[in-house]
């Protein structure tokens, strides 16, 4: 396939990625064959696997689902099955038709004044509801389960002393684009497209990615009035997809695996919509997304905390879905570490980047999801046992990460002086890391003030690279102790040029170059130095930085980053990522109008204007586990 990004004359700058930049291996993605045009309808190919919509009842009636997800479908056929076209806000049959019970109710589009009036009334209603809730501290109609009640009732985002964010033209544009990216299934919004770039090949960017939907979902929950339906629908729809039998070649994936992405297709022959999901079987590298299930649990908590709608999390299928996800991670095996062993490319960085093993992003999300599940699981029947297993794992995991992943000036000095070949439980250098393996750049990068969780720890291997997602999630979930969280923010301040540069934010630092790039990425032409996952800058990460800044009491740092984003993001067409050491150039293969760049900006703004919004996605400090009780040498 010819790569449309091929440009032999590509101008080089010392700041720009090098290597064989002009080949796109993404172009070989199976989806690209149909994705070129969403409206392409080929009649001769076999239709997609039949999907029976057993959960649509749940979309219509929150409380009607009592049985577990059915296993109707086998994923084995590639997604280039034809006969279908993708539906989204633009071509959905009738986004304005709301199903109420069995009736279709036509909703006329409200005028601007009506919308404003409606919004004001909704605000007032929320305010009244909130003060009622506060006065008796109990939600009259929705009774949270015991494990949810204490921690999930304190979201006060609807307390409307909230300054409504002044809708700047950039915010207005962002909202408009976000709404346009809605994907509808049977007339109901169920997610957002990854990107809507009319000028680039769609590949799989015309799908709803679970991880990409998280900032979109949070934006809808923070919106005033709140648009929680899409979040609820998304959670139910993806849960249903989890129930599919997931087979790649002859191998069946674990029951709990959540899809990386899904799409809605219209089968013209049968005149109905179908869903097609990708569990990694069509992804580059064929790796299942470990992060999807964790993000799903995290978003479920945000939804519950924000709406006080406990009925969703209490549904037996939702409880079961959570347990299936957790089962994949909590089951006994050969592990000697509480961290989760992963394949390369199983998260946001979904290509080979040397993050196999125990990557910080997954460990932090794992910890976050465990803490959310702790609040959401009902302690009935096997729920109690799950909660106990979670409690134990949280303790072990937090100790392990806080101790062995933490790097600051004094810790680096300790590693630098490590003895090797120590035997027995008294070993200080437990993983037998050879000091000579510490890369030179780390010595310059580590400031006297500040620290961070390194990328990966496993036998004789410490990946010293900085990864933003893992570190920010560690702050939000309180995996980082308060002093570690402060030190991470100090590091960001001290290393602003490297980690933020001209366009927030570096996904990883530093980039792999030369021989290392060849060995670690396998000559990946998309991940050349300072590009894409290899040291590229991703605007979506702004929301994670902002949340971490608010949590650590550093809103000024977030404001500085937001200002940088505002200088260019909209003008540049909301790209997916930027290239170059300081993030000066729009990414070589970046999609424009990337939805999570848009929604990430929106929620960063809404959090900075109303810091109460952060409680939707963060945990309060847990004083009891603030300091590891065990010391390095006595933990085993
Ligand atoms: C790319 C990114 C991945 C993202 C997807 C959709 O594959 O690496 O993190 O989810 O695009 O935006």
From TrEMBL:
<keyword id="KW-0378">Hydrolase</keyword>
<dbReference type="GO" id="GO:0033926">
    <property type="term" value="F:endo-alpha-N-acetylgalactosaminidase activity"/>
</dbReference>
<dbReference type="GO" id="GO:0005987">
    <property type="term" value="P:sucrose catabolic process"/>
</dbReference>
<feature type="compositionally biased region" description="Polar residues">
    <location>
        <begin position="57"/>
        <end position="70"/>
    </location>
</feature>
<keyword id="KW-0326">Glycosidase</keyword>
<comment type="similarity">
    <text>Belongs to the glycosyl hydrolase 100 family.</text>
</comment>
<comment type="function">
    <text>Invertase that cleaves sucrose into glucose and fructose.</text>
</comment>
<dbReference type="InterPro" id="IPR008928">
    <property type="entry name" value="6-hairpin_glycosidase_sf"/>
</dbReference>
<dbReference type="InterPro" id="IPR012341">
    <property type="entry name" value="6hp_glycosidase-like_sf"/>
</dbReference>
<dbReference type="InterPro" id="IPR024746">
    <property type="entry name" value="Glyco_hydro_100"/>
</dbReference>
<dbReference type="GO" id="GO:0004575">
    <property type="term" value="F:sucrose alpha-glucosidase activity"/>
</dbReference>
<protein>
    <recommendedName>
        <fullName>Alkaline/neutral invertase</fullName>
        <ecNumber>3.2.1.26</ecNumber>
    </recommendedName>
</protein>
<feature type="compositionally biased region" description="Polar residues">
    <location>
        <begin position="31"/>
        <end position="43"/>
    </location>
</feature>
<feature type="region of interest" description="Disordered">
    <location>
        <begin position="1"/>
        <end position="165"/>
    </location>
</feature>
<dbReference type="Pfam" id="PF12899">
    <property type="entry name" value="Glyco_hydro_100"/>
</dbReference>
<feature type="compositionally biased region" description="Polar residues">
    <location>
        <begin position="147"/>
        <end position="165"/>
    </location>
</feature>
<keyword id="KW-0119">Carbohydrate metabolism</keyword>
